[in-house]
Structures are given as C-alpha cells and as structure tokens.
Amino acid sequence: MLRLNPSSENRAHLLLTFVLFTLSISLYAPLQLWVLLLVTCAAVMRFSLYMNWQKHQLSVRTLNLMAVLCAIVLAYFGWELGLLLGMLNLLVMASSLKLMLLATRRDYFQLIGVQFFLLGAALVFNQNIAFSLFYAVLCLLLLMSLAFHINPSASWLILSKRVATLCLQALPIAILMLLVLPKLGPLWQMPTAKGAHTGLSDKVTPGDIAELARSADLAFRVTFEQDVPPANQRYWRALVMEEFDGRSWQVHPYRQRITDRFWRAGLPFTPQVSGAYYEYQVIAEPTQQRWLFALDTAVSQDQHLWQNHDYTLQSRIPLQSALAYRVTSYYDNQLPPALPQVDGRLNLQLPEGGNQRTQAWATELWRDNPTPQAYIRAIASHMRQQGFSYTLKPQPMPVDPIDTFLFEQQAGFCSHYASTVAYLLRLNGIPARLVTGYLGGEMRTDQYMSVYQYDAHAWVEWLSEDGWQRLDPTAWVAPMRIQYGLEQAVAHEQSFLADMPLSGLRGMAVFQALRGWLDDMDYLWSRWILGFDRKNQQDLLKALLGDLSPAKLALFGLGALATIAMLLALYHIKRWLLVKRDLPNWYYQKALALLAHSGIKRTKNQGPADFCAQVEKQVPPLSAQHFTALTRCYTNLCFRPLSPQQHKLQLRQMRDLLTKLRRSLRLDV
Amino acid sequence: MQPQIQQAINQIGQLIIGKQQEIRLALSCMLAGGHLLIEDLPGMGKTTLSHALAQVFGLDFSRIQFTSDLLPADMLGVNIYDTQQQQFHFHPGPIFSQVVLADEINRASPKTQSALLEAMEERQVSLDGQTHALPSPFFVIGTQNPLHQAGTYPLPESQLDRFLMRIQLGYPNWQAEKAMLQQAYNDRGESLPAMIDSTLRVSLQKQIQDVHASDAILEYILRLVTFSRESELFANALSPRASKALLLAARAWAVTDNRDYLIPEDIQAVLPAVAEHRLRSSQADGLAHASLSRKLLECVDTMAA
C-alpha cells in the first residue's frame, strides 16, 4: 500500500528527523553500529520525502518485516548489553522505524514524546557542559517542531518567540523542582560502555605511567572546604598494588577476594582516625572503573562509597559519569595495617628468580645497614651518588628490568623508582607495596584545584612498627617533581606533553587563559549542576529556612508551588475575567468548535441567526434543535436586556444545551 | 414582522414586484425619520416607489423635477408683495409637503442642491430673514441617475451624508418582471390605502427609540467603522454620523421585525444601504459600488475576538 507524502515541506517532520539523527549520533558510544545505520537510513528517507525527491513512503508490510528483523538482531545482541543499554538501543531502533512510518498525527506525537525521553536518557551518558547545552538546543528544536506542527504556516521568527516565551515561563518551575524535589538514588546500575578506559590502570608495568603522563586530560577536581594541603603533600591515593611478578605490579588477587567477601557481607572498613584533617569534595571524571582518589587516611560518609582495608576508597558502581563525593582526610593519622597478617604476608612476596645482581646488591647493603631506616637512607644516597635521573622517555627494559634500571640505565620514571625500591625492601623482609595515584594538582582558585592525567604518580608504602609509611623515591632524584610538578621536573628534556598536538601553543598566554577559563566553566557546571546532590540541597534549604523539619520542607515546597501558581494567575487573570464576563460567548465558541469538528464552519461575518439557519439545513434534526435553542440563549444573553435571574437561567440553559449538543453530534457521527 | 408593516410592504410590492427587501429598507428609513436616496437608471420604479411610500404613510406628496436652471426660489417659495395689504406674503414652494420627491437631484445647480439639503437638515426654510417651518413629518426622497453624468452636479460626499439610506432597485428578476407584465393595466389612478397612519407611525417611532442595543452590538458597529477607518481599502471612511445612522437604521429594521433588541443581522441588513454612499474605494478603478460595504461586512467578525 502506497501512501501520499505527509512530510512534503513539513518543517515539523524535518526538525523531528534532525533531532533524532543528531541525538543518535551524539550517543554513538552506547549505541550499536547497526542501530546508528538504521537511524541514518530513516533520516535520509524522511529528508528525501521532505525535499520531494521521493513521493512515497515505505509500505507498512516492508516496515513490519524490517521491525521483526531488527527485533531479532536486538534480542540477539541485547543479552550482552544489559538492561539500560538494551533499552536505549531498543528505543532508538523503535523511533527510527517509527520515523520511517511517520504519517499520522498520532505517530508524530508518539515520536515527539519518545524524543524527549531519549534526550533525558542521553544526559545519563554525556553530562559535561557542552553536551548539556547541545541537548538543551535539541530540546528547543523539538519544541519548535511541535510549534510548526500546530501552526505550519507561521514563520520561524514568530514561533521562536513563542517557544522562547514558553521556555522562560517554564524555567522558574524547573529551577524550583531542581531545588525542592527530593534527590533519588540511581534506579539502575550503569553498565560499562564500549568506550576505552581512561586514566590509571589496575596493573602497572614501569613505563606505563610515563605513557599516561603524556595526556593533558582532566582526572578529577577537588574543592577544599577550608585548608589546602601544601603542594608536596598532595598524594592522591587511588590503587594499592601488592602483587609483583618481576615486571609488573597489580592489585593482589587475594586482596581482591577479601575485598569482595567484605563487600558481599556488607562490612565496610572503618579506619581509626584522629588529629587534624582536610575536608573536600572530589568530582571525578568518568573512568569506567571503581577506584576513587583521596589523600592520606580518607573517610567518607557518602552512601555510594566503599572503604577498603588498604585505606583506599572505591565507588559501588563504575564511574560511567562524573561522580562527586565528599571526603575527610586525616593527614597526621597513622595507617596501621587493617588486617595485619594479610598485609604482612602479601607484601613480602617475591617473584621467583631474575634480577640476580639486585638481589646480591641488596643483601650486601642490608649487611651494612641492618635497620629499615638506614637501609632506605643507603638506597637513597646510592641513587643520588650514582646520578640517577628522572625522565619521561625511559628506555625499554625487557629482561631483568630492575637490574637493568639499577645498574645500566639509571634513568627512569616514578614507577621505575617506586617499583625498584619496593622490590629492594621486600628482598630484605620489609613489607612494601606500590601505590599509584596522582601527585599534585593545579590550583584554579583559592579553594579548588584540577588534577590532570599527567599528574599520575607511583610511590611506595612500607610497613614500620607504626604502620604504613609513605616513601617516594622519586623525591630523591627529582625533588622538583614533588614540589612543582611534572612540567618543571622534566623541563631539562623538553618532553612535557611534547607529543600533544598544538603543544607549542601551551606557552602562549592566550591559550593558557582560554584553557583555564574553559576549565573554570566546566568546574562550575560540574560542581553546581551535576554535583548538586542531596547534601547541597539540604545545605541550601538550611541556609534559606534554618533548621530542617519535614513539615517545614513540605511547607516550603507548597509555598513555592503556591508562588508559581500566584504568578501564573496574575498573568492570566485578565483572560479569566474576560471569560467569566463573556461566558455566553465562550459557550457559543465551544458549540462552534463542536460544529466545526463535524465540518460546519462559521464564516466570520455570519451573525448567529444566519449561522443557525445554515446549521439547521446541515445537521440532523435533534442537533439542529439543540443548536437553535443554544443560539436563542446566546442571542438573549448577548443582545437583550436581561434581569440577573434571567441571565443566570439562560446561562445554565446554555451550558446544558452545549452538553446535549455534544452528545447528539457524537451520536450523529 | 409587524402586521401593518407587512401589509404596507405587500401593498407596495404589488406595484414594484420582487423588491421586498428594498421596500422594507425604504420603510425603515422613513420610520427612522431619515431621508432616502434612490439611485438607479430611469424606468426602474423610483418615482413609483416614492409615491407609494407617501401613500402608505398617508402623507401629502409633492414632486420637484430638478433641472440645471431650477432656482432655490422655485423650490422653496417666494415672498410676493401684496399691493392691497401693503406687505409681503410668503407663497410656499413645492418643498412644503410632507413627502418631497426630489427627482434627478444631481441635475440641479449646487446652489439649489444646497438649499434643499439645508432644508432637509434644518427642517425649516429661511427666506428674507424669516423662517418658515416645514411640515412634520418631513421626508425627502431624492433620486439620481448614476449614468449619463454629463451636465450634472454630483452630490458632494458631505451632502450625501444627509441621506440616511441610499438604495438601488435594480432590474427585477425573471419571474417578477413576468408577473409585472401579466398584471392588468394599471392606470395609477387608484391610490394605496394608508396602512401606517400617523398614530401608528408615532408609536413605531417611539419603539425605535426603545430598541435595546447591547454592548456586543455597539462593539460590532465600532468594529465596522474602525475597520473602515484603518483599512487601506477605503478612501472615505465611516464618520461618527455614519455610525449613528447605522444604529438608527438598524433599530428601525429591528422594529419592522417586531423585535425590541438588536442582533448583528440587523446591522448587516441595513449596512449596504447606510454605508455604501458614505464609502469610497481607495483604488482608482475601484470596486464596484455595491461591493464596498459587502467587503466591509466580510472583513469584520460579528463576534468579539
């Protein structure tokens, strides 16, 4: 069956198509490729219908066949996708099929509804300020499409004005809802998308972090409540690695199992804390991983965070989108081993064989310096005397990497030093482990700093009688790294971000200023819009209302709603009064609308009596009778002097007649 | 409809067949106390209609045939010196009649025209410092020929305004003309009975004053005149006098319908007669005359927006 082209020159359909298409493109990561192809096909088909290159739509039979095929494919892939992604793919697939079918008003409104939902869903995947603006624009375009649907002949300018007015009116309500509505937790678990992992990895081979240091991407941001730690104390712990196989460090499988077991039992670790602390909020960029970043002994009250026994924090769900969390870090606190036996045992394991020279050298060194402190001092002075250097371009060390590093290359990145020192400590029975994370951070204002991927760092923790001690061997050879960051530390070899495109521009003041400004914008967006969580909400309400009680909160909400209602009422009161005063006219217009629905339209110069005569000829007797009576009432009300009682009576009659007319017209149809 | 009015219309309808609407308009005009202008080609029954109207109202009737050499004195009358009584005596002219038919009004010189129009407005005649009241009621039925305008003095707009209505009779339709031809020869000798005598006329005029015009109707009239003023279609818009005339004519029309309130249809019925001669198209070629008021009606909604 071929149908006439409903989209020819139809700007409402064009805009709808455009929104669906761009929205799907922006969701390329969570969407399957074939779904994107389907959307593209649908958009091209609709566009050619709009341009009249093609006059006929696909037949319903073809579409049904296609829908069945798509459903089968989706069902096949859907199992792997999980609920959220599966549903998203299903929704986009269904809307592109519907777009191919689009013919009736009903189709159109269904599609519009789904698009609004999809826009909301898209914000789950893309949250930064640019995407939010982009989706806001798409939302406006959808509204424009609706406006064109209702008033196809109007100009862009008029409709944009109308849409803008409506949006401005809706804005206060939206803000109020953001402020007042309770913040619900996520209703589903975010799955990992097919996008690449960014940032740290759970396995470190010395040299890896050097790769990471070539990236200028943002890792996370921190807003301090009061005090800011000095530059050389900003060790952001992320992962603790206890398994060493001679080449790479990784989180120990046994540690992982313990963590899982505690997790399942729902027994988080509560560290003993005392002393001075920093309070801050971290907004972590999405990493698709669970680990989080915090200083020293970090404690968090957030429900979606989990405290591990190695004093790291992790999120209950992978960071699919930016995550804000509050942390209190006790920087004078000792880190006693949470599970002493486990900690001790795991952190003494040594790889079998290899690195013979190192083993011999370590034994010799221990003989001269039989206490851990002296031993560490000896290693440090050895490295300083031998002229070890810090470089972003370490040579590959395929065989016996620690031997190669210690006795041949003598140049490496933080992970080389950390790895080597931890190994040396373990060789002589001192429990030691590698900690990766970030060191440093660029202060953007007095209170907030940005930490970039090139701030990634690795250091050592060794177990003394007092607990775990931080030891950063990089500091021995490159104190600049600790104090001033990577850029200063490797200034001699000009290697900082040397591979980045436009790296030459980094020196330019304008570029720096622009980057900083964009960064600040993004920070404000993340902090105040995305990071607007329950605590922010409560703080704000507390600032507004004083102490909170449910009754007060409810009152505030009601009050706000009442204010909005009042404003709207003020805005509309003139029209309402007019309707009230001109009730006969209003009823009469309703009756006219009913008749127009049955195909009888009044030309505007027809008086009521003339029109009534016309209607009598065109509708069945019962309806005609009702309309005649209604017209008589209308004429009496509008044109005759009536007493108030008569007026009321006639109005009531008119209302009844309107109902009767509606019923009888419906019967006639 | 009022039975007497219906009868009067029927009576006149026997003379001028198929023109019920125009006859009713003319009657309304006279009931409203306004002057009537009939504009048509010769032989359409202008004179017959005027004569019949006078008869139906039971009023005395005189006819003045306007020509270019007609002087005001010929129409108004003269003061003649009576040698026996040693004083001037006023000899009233043909205008001193209750119904005056001013035939081919546009043939007279402007001086004579303005004398007539002054008399129409003042309902009195001033001559040599003396005023002479015209009889009451006083109706002028002017006729003019729209074609063959050579040697005529078309009435200026300001004077056209003095006529409450202007109607056109137009050709009768097929059946009407056939019926007319079938009629027995009418020697015009017989006169129509006076269906609306002076008592009834006075009471009807009282009713006209009492017809209720609601806000909605007044606003409709205002929308109409405002549209004529704001639209670019019209070079001459409707004056406040025109809106008063419209209301008055519509009230008279409502009374002929035996109603004591106005509905939009009343306005629509009288608007072409009341407004057409007061409007002028702004386009050079212009819309055909009858369509100006129709255009106005089409463009204005009967209901408030």
From TrEMBL, chain A:
Keywords: Membrane, Transmembrane, Transmembrane helix. The chain crosses the membrane at residues 12-28, 58-77, 83-101, 108-125, 131-151, 163-181, 553-573. It comes from the Bacteria. InterPro entries: Bact_TGase-like, Papain-like_cys_pep_sf, TgpA-like_C, TgpA_N, Transglutaminase-like. Residues 406-475 form the Transglutaminase-like domain. PANTHER family: PROTEIN-GLUTAMINE GAMMA-GLUTAMYLTRANSFERASE (PTHR42736:SF1). This is DUF3488 domain-containing transglutaminase family protein. The lineage of its organism: Bacteria, Pseudomonadati, Pseudomonadota, Gammaproteobacteria, Alteromonadales.
Automatic annotation (TrEMBL), chain B:
Residues 228-284 form the ChlI/MoxR AAA lid domain. InterPro entries: ATPase_AAA-3 (IPR011703), CbbQ/NirQ/NorQ/GpvN (IPR050764), ChlI/MoxR_AAA_lid (IPR041628), P-loop_NTPase (IPR027417). Signal peptide: none annotated. Pfam families: AAA_3 (PF07726), AAA_lid_2 (PF17863). Residues 35-165 form the ATPase AAA-3 domain. This is AAA family ATPase.
